[in-house]
From TrEMBL:
Residues 1-18 form the signal peptide. The keyword Signal applies. This is Secretion system C-terminal sorting domain-containing protein. Residues 407-478 form the Secretion system C-terminal sorting domain. Keywords: Signal. InterPro entries: Delta_60_rpt (IPR013431), Gal_Oxase/kelch_b-propeller (IPR011043), Secre_tail (IPR026444). It holds the Pfam family DUF5122.
Length: 480
């Protein structure tokens, strides 16, 4: 009976080993949403949607805020499941530690269902919702316009950035302005603004991108200390041409665990002799030096220029989205792909034929699965709503680590090595089997001095099963 139970469990685990990047059929959204929706995932896995609806003049004319359960169904505990309407536009939002939601934009009317409350006037561009979607009327009015980004500090104080005089301001958790934060930014024109801010632990430094003047010097990416003063240890590289427009600035940024910074946008990197060396996606060191050119010359072609970073996974891998590209550094690109930390293509991630239209927003759930929304109605040839979820297992060097047994390298080219915990050796192994993702058992030469020869295996994802007297270990590995 134990063997039957194990086989059923093992069979289920194999079925669950879908290729990273494939469609997750357990996510079921009822219908379609605005392709210009902004996504944000809560710590509990629920998904906040800010749907932005474009009018005939090409401008956002209304916004609806709703929340999904982690399986894609509407959360009926938020605004009765019908959502909240803001007229005309919400530009950004963030969550505080108590689950309340900060929203900013060009709000005039706050509306739930058929009830309209004139609680947000043209000068009230930041407000707060309770966890259930009702308006939090205890939140103070903020007399600042042009807010483009919000970040919440560990103590629940609020940082906002945008097209107002000081570029960045800090508020108390109740919305009142904190007078002890002194920004060195001076915004003078409508083209200048702070577009993104992020809090960097543990010292609460502030990573800022935009197009502003700081202490009289034009900057696109920089750090502020926790009190608002400029962090002079970081220097923006001088060999980046951000473009001809005054408003040109990074569209994507992310802070890596080693304090490097990823920057994406429409820009050119050049050498001392003014020759172009790369485009649109770079990594900077903690002091601002250029570390990685993800789109170097001469390998960058026309379609590569339409592919940009969209999200950073917690394992350091990078989600890329953009145009269809037959030759993206030797691979085909179909709307979405994933890079390894070093910029090489992640062979574990395979979205097949991908989306049949552009992806506008990406969010990653706590379990690593990827939510995408955009201008598409097919994924890998299958009709889908325009918000879907993709699978991802986020393979580490080994999934046996918690048990002390490991396999490496992973992905592997020729030889897969086993490393045992203390007190264990190959004599403790009763069975060693390898399966492909169709549950077909693979013939191989077995274990030889703790090494498995996989050089003749076809490229793909495999499952290794190791049985001892006490336990059965299973894990995935990828053969290049």
């Amino acid at each position: 009976m134990r063997k039957i139970i194990f086989f059923i469990s093992f069979l289920a685990s194999l079925i669950g080993f879908a290729q990273d990047g494939s469609l997750d059929m357990s996510f079921n959204f009822p219908g379609t949403i605005s392709p210009e929706t902004i996504l944000k995932v809560q710590p509990d896995g629920k998904i906040l949607l800010v749907e932005r609806f474009i009018g005939r003049d090409g401008l956002i004319e209304s916004t609806r805020i709703s929340r999904l359960n982690s399986d894609g169904s509407y959360d009926m505990t938020f605004a009765m499941g019908i959502g909240i309407t803001i007229l005309p536009e919400v530009t950004t939002f963030a969550m505080q530690s108590d689950g309340k939601i900060l929203i900013a934009g060009k709000g005039i009317f706050f509306k739930i269902g058929d009830t309209t409350k004139d609680n947000i006037d043209s000068f009230q561009n930041l407000t707060r919702l309770n966890q259930d979607g009702t308006l939090d009327e205890s939140f103070a009015k903020v007399d600042l316009t042009g807010i483009e980004t919000i970040a919440v500090l560990p103590d629940d104080k609020i940082l906002i950035g945008g097209n107002f005089t000081k570029g960045v301001a800090r508020l108390y958790s109740n919305g009142f302005l904190d007078p002890f934060f002194n920004s060195p930014i001076n915004v003078k024109t409508r083209d200048e603004s702070v577009s993104n801010i992020a809090i960097i632990s543990p010292d609460n430094r502030i990573l800022v991108t935009g197009n502003v003047f700081v202490n009289g010097i034009e900057r696109r990416v920089f750090y502020l200390n926790s009190d608002g003063k400029l962090d002079t240890t970081f220097n923006e590289p001088l060999n980046i041409d951000w473009g001809d427009e005054n408003s040109a600035r990074p569209q994507f940024f992310a802070h890596e665990k080693n304090d490097n910074v990823l920057i994406g946008g429409t820009f050119r990197v050049f050498s001392e002799s003014n020759e172009t060396t790369g485009y649109n996606f770079i990594r900077l060191s903690p002091d601002g030096n250029l570390v990685t050119l993800f789109h170097p010359v001469p390998y960058t072609n026309e379609c590569v220029l339409g592919i940009f970073p969209a999200a950073l996974q917690d394992d350091g891998k990078i989600i890329m989205t953009g145009n269809e590209c037959i030759d993206y550094y030797g691979t085909e690109f179909h709307g979405i792909s994933r890079l390894n930390n070093d910029g090489s293509n992640d062979d574990i991630f395979n979205s097949g034929n991908g989306t049949n239209g552009p992806i506008s927003n990406v969010a990653i759930q706590p379990d690593g699965k990827i939510i995408i929304v955009g201008y598409f109605n097919e994924f890998d040839g299958v009709a889908v709503p325009n918000i879907i979820r993709l699978t991802t297992e986020r393979l580490s060097a080994s999934e046996f680590d918690s048990l002390g047994l490991s396999i490496y390298p992973n992905p592997v080219a020729d030889f897969l090595y086993l490393q045992y915990p203390e007190g264990m050796s190959d004599v403790d192994i009763d069975e060693l089997e390898i399966y492909d993702v169709t549950m077909k058992k693979i013939d191989f030469d077995g274990l030889n001095n703790d090494v498995i020869d996989v050089s003749d295996f076809s490229a793909g994802v495999y499952v290794i099963k190791i049985k001892t007297d006490y336990s059965v270990y299973t894990s995935k590995f990828v053969k290049h």
